[in-house]
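Support request from a user on the community tier.

User writes: "When I paste my structure tokens into the form, the page sometimes reloads and wipes my input. The last time it worked, I copied everything first. Here is what I submitted, just in case something in the input itself triggers the reload:"
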């Protein structure tokens, strides 16, 4: 029965204009791959509307720090009215997308995500272990847990900055 801490909640990116949806996904994948994180996609839908495509993706990059700590960043991506357009850049025609993009970022850190301390054989609850675990987290592991909260915050702000930089560049590119 570990603890769940939310270092960053409800960071948001909203953008309307020209961008490549493929490039946004590539940026997210590349960033987390370079940092050594894995990724799981929980929800992925795309359908046509009269004004363009609607895309909704929920993904969770995560990292198992060790047997006790797991870091998770949740990303919700909503794209409305996505249409493919062709723009001319330096005399060449380039295919890109136009639409409205909303991304929401949350993060959480789970301790004892395997329930090693509290639950023993045959799922027997161990109250004494719960007390020991709580004391260990509050006093002994405090600096280590604070360090990983900072790392999670840094990773989330980093990926958000990468995406915002790409979207800002598109304003001046096309």
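"...and here is what came back when it finally went through:"
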């Amino acid at each position: 029965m570990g603890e769940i801490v939310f270092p960053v909640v409800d960071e948001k990116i909203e953008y309307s204009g020209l961008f490549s949806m493929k490039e946004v996904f590539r940026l997210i994948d590349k960033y987390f791959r370079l940092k050594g994180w894995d990724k799981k996609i929980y929800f992925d839908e795309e359908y046509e509307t009269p004004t363009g495509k609607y895309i909704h993706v929920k993904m969770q990059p995560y990292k198992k720090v060790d047997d006790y700590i797991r870091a998770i960043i949740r990303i919700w991506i909503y794209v409305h009215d996505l249409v493919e357009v062709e723009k001319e850049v330096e005399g060449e025609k380039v295919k890109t997308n136009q639409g409205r993009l909303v991304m929401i970022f949350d993060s959480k850190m789970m301790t004892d995500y395997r329930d090693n301390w509290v639950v023993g054989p045959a799922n027997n609850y161990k109250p004494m272990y719960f007390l020991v675990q709580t004391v260990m987290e509050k006093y002994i592991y405090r600096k280590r847990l604070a360090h990983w909260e900072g790392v999670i915050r840094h990773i989330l702000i980093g990926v958000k900055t990468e995406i915002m930089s790409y979207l800002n560049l598109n304003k001046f590119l096309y």
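Agent notes: The reload is a front-end session timeout and is unrelated to the input. The chain has three helices and six strands. The chain has a mean pLDDT of 87. Escalated to web team.
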